[in-house]
Each structure stands twice: as C-alpha cells, then as structure tokens.
Amino acid sequence: MTLAHIAGYPRIGANRELKAATEAYWRGETDLEALEATGRALRERHWVAQREAGLDLVTVGDFAFYDQVLDVSVLLGAVPGRFAADDEVARGEVSLDTAFRMARGRAPTGTPAAACEMTKYFDTNYHYLVPELHAGQTFRLASSRLFDQVAEARAAGHPVKVTLLGPLTWLWLAKARDEELDRLSLLEAVVAVYGEVLTRLAEQGVEWVQLDEPALVQDLPREWQQAYEAAYSVLGRVPVKLLLATCFGGLGENLNLAVNLPVEGLHIDAVRAPEQLEAVLDRLPGYKVLSVGAIDGRNIWRADLALLRERLASARMRLGKRLWLAPSCSLLHVPVDLAAETELDPELRSWLAFARQKLDEVVTLAHLLDGRATAQDRERVEAATQALQARRDSVRIHRPAVAERLARVSAADTERASPYPVRAKAQRRGLGLPRFPTTTIGSFPQTAEIRAARRAVKAGELGPEAYEARMREEIAHAVARQEALGLDMLVHGEAERNDMVEYFGERLEGYAFTRYGWVQSYGSRCVKPPVIFGDVSRPGPMTVRWSEYAQSLTERPMKGMLTGPVTMLQWSFVRDDQPRETTCRQIALALRDEVRDLEAAGIRAIQIDEPALREGLPLRSGEWQAYLDWAVACFRLSAAVARDETQIHTHMCYSEFNDIIAAIAALDADVITIETSRSDMELLEAFQDFAYPNEIGPGVYDIHSPNIPEVDWMVQLMEKAAERIPPERLWVNPDCGLKTRGWAEVEPALANMVEAARVLRRRH
Ligand code: GLN
Ligand code: ZN
Q1: Does position 90 have pLDDT exceeding 80, yes or no?
Q2: Is the ipTM of this complex over 0.85?
Q3: Is residue 398 a contact partner of residue 535, using CB atoms and an 8 Å limit?
Q4: Which residues of the sequence carry a binding annotation for L-homocysteine (predicted)?
Q5: Nearest residue to 586 via CA among 726, 409, 340
Q6: What residues are in contact with ligand 1 under a 6 Å CB criterion?
Q7: β-pairing, 265-269 with 531-537?
C-alpha cells in the first residue's frame, strides 16, 4: 500500500493561536506554562487532523515556537556566547527564553542581547534565524524538546515520523562569524550530535526520521557534495530509518549523490521538478523508499487528482510498496484551512486547497494508485476534475482583451524615448532640484489612528467619505511636515495603504483576497498573500486621486508611488496555469496605465518599488539570467511609457546587489534608492565597479532603528558615497519607508538628514 504522509504542517493554527500565545507571553501577560499548553494543543490538533485525513504517519518535529532552524541550533547547543544564561549553554537544557532572545534580542527572562540575523529560507517568504558559528565552536545535545514531542505523540497513540533539518543544510544555512572558520570543519562535531539525537529517537521507538536537506537542490561546491557522503555514512549506521527529504526544485547534478546516500528513503519535489521523477526511478537502489512530493506545498491550487493518478501510475508499478506520497514540501508555506473562507466566492473557492485540504488530496491519491478508492475518494476526484475543468474554461480567468494587448507589446514598449543623459537634462529643467536632493522612500508613520480608521471602515463604523477625508488630513499633514523640514522631493506618505501589495491587488481584476489565509513569515509574524487567479487588468486609476491631491498642496515635486510588477508577483500566490512571466507582464501593463495616468495628472516623478526583485532569483544560478531578463522587461514595460521629463524612481532594500547589479542597471530607472546605511556604503562598490550610469540615493540611515542619526555621521557616509559615485548623481534619503516609525523619531531624523544635505551642497 502506498504510504501517505506530509513533510510538515503549518504550526500557527487556523486562527493564528500561536501568534496570540507567543505575543502574550512576550508581553508578560501569560506564563510559560500557558504558552507550552498552547503549543501542546496545537500539535495535538494537527496530529489529529493528519490521522483523521487518513495519513499513515503523523509528522513530529515540525512545530516550533519561533523557527524550526533556530530549534535545531538550540538542539545542537549552537547558542552564541552573548545569550549564555550562566552555565546554561555549557551544560543544562537551553531554555525557551534563550531561544527567544536569539530570535528577538529579548525575552521575559535573561539579559537582552543583539538578536541573530534573519533571512529568507531558500526561495520562500519564510524567514529563518541564521545559525551563527564562532571560532572554537562546540556542540552538544542541548534540548529535549524534540524527544518530549515524540513522547507526547506516542502517548496520544499516533504513528510517528520525525522531521528534522539535516546537518548539511543546517551548516549550509549557517554563517561563520570568524572569517577563518570553515563551516565544513565543524561537520564531524555536528554529525556526532545528530547521531546522538537519532539514537535517542531510535530508543524512543521511532522508526522513520525525515532529514530535510533542501540544499541538495542548489549548486553545491564539490567539498559539500563530499560532505554529504561523509555525514550520511555516519548517520546511516544509527538503527533508525532515514528519509532524505529534498524540496523546492530538482536535484540536478546532485541526483546521483542523493539517490545513493546510505539511507532508507528519498523524498523528491515532483511539483517544481516533475521531470526528475523518471531519472530518480531509474537510479533508485531497490531497497529504498521513494516519497514523491506530488501535491503542491507552495501554492494553494487544488490538485488534479485524476491527472496525477495517470502520471504516477508507472511509479506505482515500478516501486510497489516502496512508493510514498506527500506534498512537495512542508505545508508551512500555505494557509491552514480553506473551510474558514466562507466569504470567498464559491467558484474561486472550489479551485483552491489549503493545508488541511492537501492532506485529503494526498490520501485520496494514495488510495487511487493502490486501486482502493472509497466512495469518498471517488467523489473527491470527481469534484476536483469538475472544479479544474471549470477553472480552465472560466471567463473570470481568461480576459481576451488582456491577452490581445499582451500580444501587441513590442520591444519598443520597454524603451524610454531617450537615453538617461537626455532625460536627466529634461528632468533637471522640470524639477528644479538642488544638488544632493533629499527625499524619502514613500511611507510616513502608519499611526494607531490611521489603522483604527481602516478598522472602523471594515466594521462599517466609518463611511467611505469620512475615511477619505481622514486620509486626506493625513496626507496634508505629511506634506506640511515635509515642507517644513525642507525636503526637496515629497511623497504623500501612503496613509491610505494597508499594505504595498494588497492595496494594488484590491484595485486590480484577477486578484482575490482571503480572510484567514495567513502564512507564517517569521516568528509570530504572518502574511496573507493575495491570490492571483486570473488575467490581471486595471479597471481604473488606483493611486491618481491621492497623488493629485498631495501635489495640489505643494509647489515641490510630489513622487507618485507604485509597487512594481515583480514585487506584486513575488508576494502573492500566483496562478499555476500559465508561466509566472506572463502573469508578471499583465501586472506590468496595468501599472503602465497607472504611470501614464499619474503623468497626465501632473505628477513629475513616479517611484516603482521593487524590493522583491532579488528574492525572485531561482535557486540555481543557471536559471538566473532567464528570470532577470523577464523581470527587468516587466519593470521597463511599466515605466517606459513615461515621458523624458518624468523621473522614474525605483527602490530596493536588501543588502546583496552584487549578483544582480547588471539587472538593476538594466531597469534604467532614473533614480534608485537603496538600503546601504548598515554596510557603511560598501554596497556602493558594486555600483561603482559596474559604472552604474544613473542616479542613486544610498540610504543614509537605518529606519529599523529608533535612534536619531547625527548630521556628521550622514555627511560622512555621503562623502564615502561621493568617492564612488559622482556627486551630481547622488540623492540623500533614508534606507526604506518610515511606516513603522513614529513622528517623534521621523521629524528629528529627517531634519538632520536635510541639514546633512545642506552641508554636502556647501562642500561640493
Ligand atoms: N514605498 C514603500 C514604503 O515606503 C517601500 C516599502 C519597501 O521597500 N518594502 O513603505
Ligand atoms: Zn525598502
């Protein structure tokens, strides 16, 4: 019989119970006992869901109060010295508060310290805490949480499979804080602790342990490939069966390596890389189990069960009982339960499957392949087939006008009328800006009052006109503040925007919004990505009246503010029935119309934010160029409609520009504002080396910090910038939007920034 399982389940809870519980604990409103109780209740509920769905194993080890990578660091005793509570790190069990301090810098107990770095997990929007390695690093088994959870599940009578991030991927994700330190030199010590962990699990009666090694779908240096062999030859000796799990892509040149490691099973992603299934089947040793990740764990579309049955029939024949079925990856990346979406349009809802529904899909597919489908399974297949047929034919998805317009797009549509030097002259005349012009990235503080007004609208307590008037007041306030501060290019402040993607998605056709479709982003933070289900088009202007109003309040140029096509795509659940590129082009065309309308309304500068450009990079460097080509083309398609006199800005905020500097230049934005303040302007090296031709506003202060930046300090940073970029092409601005700050911080910080620009003008 085909075994049905999952790589992991979302832990936040259908109502984000985990968020509420951890935040209450952090605020000191509840105690540890209450928090642990919530954790236990959520785990049990999720195991029961897996059993009720008919999975053969429940997965233990996917729960974490903050982050599963952090939990492995704690398990291995890899706790940086600054978090050491007395001798906890040397000997005892590492406490939950220590883990929280690693994650957030503080916890109800213990001394605050600088939190560990956080970054995106592979190509997902989930952020993990980067394991930190120091010279003289040692490891020891420092937590019994995993074993407690196994005991918990067994006591409840569940058949347990444990999941744990594998040693190589943990090290791959780690950063050595001392340059000399070679991560792989620590492998033996790490593997020794993993050996202990596996032995303990075996003693607890665990039969299968899934070791997640998604690093195997990336380009691995030779030493790392060899390290896999070394590590797994040791771990393979522990008397527990190991399922080596990969996801997010194909194994590529690591396929032989992965297939031949001395473990009992392999899990592959057959959604992202369906083509690898045949190759794996041909090479898989006869004693191994193959877990096929057939249901999409990264997206929310209902599976075509009938089609999957056909596609997997030969795998079933060849593998017999050695076939396992699962979603492609942990369900951490999709919302919990579609059943909660009672207000979603029923037709659209019938096209979707969230985590809970995906459990059913896995089970039914296993039954189908075994030829033991129940009446319920047959109903499910029938319902899926019908829904998907309806989706293929739906007029809500296919808007012929969108496709026709896309077909008419030519290369000329992605070219501004004139090259940058010509545009720059026209813009200089029209905008009348001084040297070192000052500006901000777009948002001003999203105050409690603004958010309360939005809630009141939702609750029906505030009418649309009253809301509009409230937002206009906010805009007028922001404009007046900026004029008083002496900023050169103003923004309206984005008071009316709940979120930079949602705001636009709500004004476009082809987008839908769920009510409870939360996905964990990091720690207790969840996001609710919009769903792009159909052809995207713009029924009417989205931002024009706000920008126009803001411009009417001032003589100074007011920047229009848009979210770019790649970011709109990247931060949504995207339809899977056409290439992402096509969807992105549709969004680009909608934004193009907005650019044109803003311009017609008298807006002389328009910023098209693309903070997600870099995170869209594929996991394999060989695929980067193809992605960057269409991503850049989409940005240009939105922007190139602008006349020479209209200044196009863009903004990006992440710290590694080196890989994509050519693509950034290819955007051909007149001005780019970027995050650089934390790296002391070193980032500009990439721009200097590339001889970046257009204007740059390197962020002069870190908006994530409440500290007020000093004038001298910002002047010095800009002097460094001026060594790399000609001063006439430099702007002065913070490194990101100010929405998370309060006015009490924003005003003095910007006053100093404006003063710094004045000093610079006197000097240059
Ligand atoms: N314009 C946006 C803001 O200022 C940009 C946000 C971002 O970079 N993520 O908030
Ligand atoms: Zn930013």
Answers
A1: no
A2: yes
A3: yes
A4: 441-443, 494, 609
A5: 409
A6: 441-443, 494, 500, 561, 609, 611, 651, 653, 736-737, 739
A7: unpaired
